[in-house]
Amino acid sequence: MARDRTPSTRHRIHVLAAAAAALALAGTAPALAGTPASAASTPRGHDVSSHQKNVDWPDAKAKGAVFVYIKATESTTYRNPYFGRQYNGSRQAGLVRGAYHFARPDQSSGAAQAAYFVSNGGTWTADGWTLPPALDVEYNPYDKKHRCYGLSPSGMVGWIRSFSDELRRETGRRPVIYTTTNWWDLCTGGSGAFAADHALWIARHGSAEAGTLPAGWSSWTFWQYGNSGSLPGDQNLFNGSPGRLRAFARGH
Fold first, then answer.
1. Would you call 167 exposed, middle or buried from its count of C-beta atoms within 10 A (0-12, 13-18, 19+)?
2. For residue 34, what pLDDT is reported?
3. Most buried pick, 25, 26, 129, 219, via CB within 10 A?
4. Strand pairing partners for 16?
5. CATH number, domain containing residue 192
6. Does 126 reside within a domain?
7. What is the per-residue pLDDT across 58-78, written as a single tens digit (0 to 9) for each?
């Protein structure tokens, strides 16, 4: 996801490394991130964090942004200090927006982190302008020796389920899950337990296609295809029409 605090420089490296590994497994050489051909017919968006600070939202809108995800929290100890102005500013500019939480399964329970997230911006309302809260779960950017945060695959599945159950209890929505196929296969053991009721936000950079998806999912809802482009932060697509995006935001 978009860079945030200083340690997230490592976060970015691990995300790109994971994407490159996915490309290698697929037999495709990594390339510089470009705009996929599908961007011409599907809603474009981006994701940002405190790294982007005071975003020029009208300019992002003018450059084609339809939606944005904004980092709200990490673990139970960090809240993006720019979150309020980013969240409200994007809505005022006419973007459909949502909040995301960066998971730290080594720090506290999924339920505790979901509760913290909801208390600090990870809410949802069926107004057609608010995307369901998202869970960013990927390689550990703080300890490369513990890429799965010290959890077994079953432990990770339990952690994600705990987060999801608490989020649904508090907001009425299951989280969108942001991840890479490599991380999911390694750290959940390729679990297909979430595909039926969780939208997928797949990260795969430098490719014309989203590629092989994590177990259980037959399609992606959001695709983060690059970490630079015309929009601030990471570049994303929604898999559907603008009307479908609004319906998804409303909970349909």
1. buried
2. 56
3. 129
4. none
5. 3.20.20.80
6. yes
7. 999 999 999 999 999 999 999
Residue 3 lies in a domain: no
In a domain, 180, yes or no: yes
Q: Which residues are catalytic?
A: 47, 136, 138
For residue 48, the SS3 value is: strand
Give me the number of domains the chain comprises: 1
What Cα–Cα distance (Å) separates residue 183 from each residue in 12, 108, 175? Answer: 14, 20, 18
**Count of all residues that appear for the chain in the document:** 252
What radius of gyration, in Å, describes the C-alpha atoms of the chain? 16
**Segments forming the whole domain that contains residue 60:** 8-250
- φ/ψ (deg, to 5) at 206: 70, 30
How many Cα atoms occupy the beta-carbon half-sphere of 64 within 13 Å? 16
**CA distance linking residue 73 with residue 80, whole number of Å:** 6
Sign of CA dihedral 224, 227, 229, 232: positive
Using alpha carbons only, what angle is made at residue 186 by residues 5 and 240, rounded to the nearest 5 degrees?
70
Element (H, E) at 57: helix 57-62
Q: Which residues of the chain have a pLDDT value below 50?
A: 2-3, 6-33
Q: Is residue 2 in some structural domain?
A: no
Distance of alpha carbon 148 from alpha carbon 105, whole angstroms:
8
DSSP 83: H
What type of residue sits at position 152?
S
Distance CA 112, CA 208 (A): 38
- Find where tokens 């936000």 sit: 201
What's residue 144's pLDDT? 87
Nearest CA among 97, 118, 102 for reference residue 166: 118
Q: Are strands 200-203 and 65-74 parallel, antiparallel or unpaired?
A: unpaired
